[in-house]
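Supplementary Methods, section 5.1.

A reviewer requested that the exact input to the structure prediction be made available. We therefore reproduce it here, unchanged from the version used in the analyses.
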Amino acid sequence: SFKIRINNSKKKYFLFVGASKPRKGLLIALEGFYEFCKLNKNFQFRIVGFFDKKNSYNRKVLEFISQHNLPVEFIGTVSHEELATQFAQCTAHVLPSVTEKFNFEGFGLVHLEANICGSLTIGSRGSANDEIIKDGYSGFLVNQHDSKQVADAMSRCVFMLSNDENKTALNCIKWADKFSWKDSINAIAEKYSNND
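The structure derived from this sequence is encoded token-by-token as follows.
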């Protein structure tokens, strides 16, 4: 489990966490990052998790990175402690998941993991993200398949952090705290008791 932490010195990188699959939206995130970098220099994009270079989708990802000479670092699989550090130091976590024919992203716990570490997160509308990301507070919601909105959300994250990094981090932590098991159980119990 993640410990609540505030890092007073965010680093200039966006973070993708998870195994790279089409439904996770890594290519869309990188397209957004490419647009973002046209106006914002010295940022990096880090990928934490399993990345199969032989997979056809991931070959497209690698081709896009190479074509645009993007500053992308593949971190690979890391410990929980290292993952918490990556979350705590990032400008924002980015997972613009997409719904496909038989695949969709369920409850995006990774967004709350970023928040509990004091970081903003960017995710797609049309999924559980609508409930777990408070748009403009704990991160930003973007339309699925919309890399321009991802780029805009990245810029908005940078702006929020430049205004008040500590307040932004505290807001993220407060938001993630609302999703505790204890609170969920109490809410369910209250629903059942009100149905009598």
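The CA atoms of residues 28 and 147 lie 5 Å apart. These observations are discussed further in the main text.
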